Amino acid sequence: MLPIARGLFSSLRAGPRPSGRLLKLRPPPIAKSSSALGQFRQFSSTRPKSARYFRFEVDPEQPLNYRRWSTGTQVFGGIVVLSVAYYVTHLETVPETGRRRFMDVGPKFETMMAEQSHHQLLEEFRGKILPPDHPLTQAVRDIVTRILDASNLGSLKADSTLKQQAGTPIEDSWHADVQTREGPVPGSGQREWRLIVVHDPKIVNAMASFGNIVVFTGIIPVARDEDGLAAILGHEIAHVVARHTSERYSSMKVLIAFATLLEVLGLDVGVARFLTTYLLELPNSRTQELEADVIGLRLSAKACYNPEAAPEMFNRMGKLEQAQGARLNVDFLYTHPTSESRVKMLEAFIPEARSIRANSSMCIGMQEQFESFQEATGPPDHPALMNPLKVAIIGGGPSSFYVASRLLSLVPPTGTQQLRAHIYDRLWSPHGLVRYGVAPDHPEVKNCTHKFDQAAQDPRLKFFGNVNIGGPTTSSPSAISVPIESLLSKYTHLVLGTGCTIPVLHSALPPSERCIPALEVVHWYTNHPSKPKAPPIDEAQHVSIIGQGNVSLDIARILLSRPEDLKQYDIPERVLSHLAKSTVKRVSIIGRRGPYEVAFTAKELRELLDLPGVVMDPLQPEMLQWRGDMKPTRQQSRIVSLLERGSKEKAKGPGDGFKSWSLEFFRSPTGVVPTPHSVSSNLELSLAHTTLDAKNKAVPTGATSILPTDLIITSLGHRSEPTAHWYDPGLGHVRNVSGRVIDERGNVLKNVYTSGWASTGAKGVLATTMMNAYDVAQTLLSDAREPMPEARAVMNGKVEEGTLDELPDEVKRGLETSRVITYESWKRIDEEETRRGTALRGKERERMEWNEVERYLQDAQRFNSR
Ligand code: NAP
Fold this sequence. Notes:
The chain has 28 helices and 30 strands. The longest helix is centred in the first third of the chain and has 34 residues, at 269-302. The chain starts with a helix and ends with a helix. The model is unreliable at 1-52, 164-189, 328-333 and 651-656 (pLDDT under 50). NADP nicotinamide-adenine-dinucleotide phosphate (NAP) binds at residues 504, 506, 546-552, 554, 591-593, 597, 599, 604, 668, 698, 715-718, 762-765. Keywords: Hydrolase, Metal-binding, Metalloprotease, Protease, Zinc. It comes from Thelephora terrestris.
């Protein structure tokens, strides 16, 4: 073997690339004894050791005339031409980034390497591998599964061998009583991945190649939380997605050829090795690392993890390296770029990643996962606060409670860490959309209130219901009014969690008796204090719902369910009795785009398909055909396969007499008039037929049709109230950058933040809101430790000694007269509602109205003072 080729092989053996830096050096485990490597070795060892350089014999008059070359030179020239042709024909583009590269390794080789590597890893880490049911393995597994799922990259293999191979039980501080989660998700890509979590706190590393992912427990503290670990895993998975190890195998051949050429040309071995290493191998390796950073950022954002966690994690990694003196700050000498260059590059991609995350449908289910990770790893460490924080949060919905609970968990209640979080809501009860938005037959969604109850037990958190901070009073007639200025002078920080409470209306369908916004229907069946009228479903056979989001499906489900199936839930008695009088037989859910563009999610569609006694109108197979250039997303494929299932079921369905529903695609309303002649319907809804343009927007085809109907419900989404502070009419929500509120000139307002739908618009499910709120809490605390110099002050910013618990005068008076509801009062009402529900017929709860609440609390007070 040529000396230089030997050196190159030893670098090829490095196999998978570690994330960040491997702080404890160890022999790389993968590809150690691959047969391919063996073949290379045999091939190269046939070269005589004595050959040092080659003499070119050409005609100096006509150097390019190959006929005049010596035979040896001709053979050499032929090899070079063939090699160049081979190289050029094996150039390809990395699909994710457009980078050109040489690749001559195929899928068969990769499959073989995946299997071999897996066995080697099991062997190497025998006795140190955490079992599959260990909470930490579960937590890492959940993150990997989510990243794979979100981008349809395949599934994690449930590896029973790990259980036996895990060896002697490891003393652990994580309690092991965790249920095994779901296996691979059907319908995902074909690739099978494997995960090994190695218990070695000294190794700060993770790596992946050929579908084998290895995580060392030493990296968990650096990852700090689930987002940080997702950043690491996204990066490692990205190496596999971009086939970096295969690329290294391929490029190694080029390096060997290049080195051979240099040696043949008589270059000193040391110089040749230097040139190939520093000009080709290391720069290529750093390119791969940066590429994995970008792809990984996209993958983790698509899986709904916080993109900002990636640069933060590399920052921490850089500090750790510096602390351990692990490397100089010079890229040139290393396989990995410096943490600084990575952070800089990642930050440039954050806006793109944020938008990927905002549009990701994969945020469902994150809440549970996030919490399980925190349970397994414990809360992250944070430096102490310099000054006390007194945070006023406007809005008592889930985003506000999540911000508050996150602040409480990040700032431990010690003598030096002073924090207060006061939540104000104009409604008398807490939990916003969880109480007044979630459909009654989705009780499991309301489980998040247990977490809010838990947070409210911390004396640093207070809730003040029935307090309207400077807004209109129509939706909360009983609330006391407090100007926002009263808060600005009493608190150091303000968080706007006021949500999106205004329904988007359709210009062609102004609200009327028979054309009502979906929010009114939702508020009717949740007993909202604004007390909207009951929809006239007792005079309607056909209901048209405009818009194809989850709210549309919630309403359709409630209208088509048998009242006896709803009786057990948190649905008021008067609503149930009105539903019992319903004459609705058919619901059409109308969308301006197609089945691949619907806004509802698979779970809600499945529930509608599974409603007893209700059938879906079958859809034509052509309607469900995919026409895009790229593959449909996993979410799209799920929806369409459910629609295919629903379309088939109709054929074997029981026939007439049942309630039915349909999805009407590519239809956009242009107007509605009372039916002039027909007695069978009340209204005529005009619909323009649409198609999709190049940007996937609905455009009219010119064709139209009329749909006879009795009741129209517009369900087109929501926006914030225009009277909300720092509202941006163009955006439909509060103007902000990453949760920091900005004024109309783009100045950051010091200590003013916004979270949840008030900051993003009405999108995403509850888990999306939770993650957004957690990010805002994190930002608020980071700013409190390192204030932004250019921010504009609108708040007092400081609290005087001993005034941490002081409240605005209006609130104090409201508390004295019991107009303001505290969390303790709410818990009493909560108990009473539950008691009333149980007493009725074992239903979930029977909701109270404000006048009942007032009476109940007064009675309770009288009783207590006796
Ligand atoms: P959404 O998801 O934004 O859906 C709005 C629908 O209205 C879309 O189909 C949209 O179509 C359509 N639309 C908007 N403007 C239109 C126009 N001018 N003409 C015709 N169609 C129009 O809104 P949502 O259903 O109110 O839900 C809001 C958020 O709450 C969503 O994130 C949702 O997932 C969440 N939510 C979740 C649940 C649950 O998890 N069960 C329940 C309720 C709500 P285009 O796509 O063509 O714009």
